[in-house]
Write a structure and sequence with these properties.
The chain is built from seven helices and 15 strands. By secondary structure, it is an alpha/beta fold. Helix 2 packs parallel to helix 3, helix 3 packs antiparallel against helix 6 and helix 4 runs antiparallel to helix 6. The protein is globular, with a radius of gyration of 20 Å. About 4% of the residues have low confidence.
Amino acid sequence: MKVLIADDEPHLLAHLKARLAAGWPELQVVAEAANGPEALRLAEETNPDVAFLDIRMPGLSGLEVAARLAETRPACRVVFVTAYEEHAVEAFEQAAVDYLLKPVGDDRLARTVGRLRAAAPGAGPGGGEGAEAAVTLPADVLRELRRLMDGASGKDRLRWIRASVGASVKMIPVEEVCYFQAADKYTAVFTREGEHLIRTPLKDLLAELDPDRFRQVHRGTVVNLAQIASARHDALGRVSLTLRDRPEAVPVSRTYAHLFRQM
């Protein structure tokens, strides 16, 4: 069987690839993607039998990639990989979808491999025990999975940013943030009034922010969608955003440029 692995964290992708090689030596990893759009492109080129998809990826989420694959590669089985244990696991289990938690453990991966082997061509009529969890994902299952994840995670959305200002702590309502930007070991928080530094890594913040209100536009930048006044496209295809309450333009990487084609 041919496998595609998609994860924006290279060391975790390499870890999963190594564990798969140890647990299923006959498996052929034909593609490795660092973001959602790349995963779709490589799926078109390599036609994998199985796709291991990180939930949180630049460009397109694992759920969005799975929805596209259900249309273009309906025979491709999907296994979701996530670091967000609390709400993701509940949603996956309710939707009877196979998933792995980061970092991937050998015992849990062995169960997934068993399901994939049972569902593989030549496994026999009906496959084996657990085969149903490794089959392809109909559109209605994907919609239900997204609904369950959104509903479960909505209770925990970040509402306040705690930023140190000298010896005091400033509480910033999250809706007043124009954008976040990774800065070494810190994250810079830009508001209309100025800039603050917090110790929370950008990736951890992104997991707590409402995806309907905040969007990653660069590997190190997350923007409040309500702050976007316009998108500028230059002759080389580069995109930058003009914000309502900040004077500087915010660059958009090529990975995310497709999000602003209509602006």
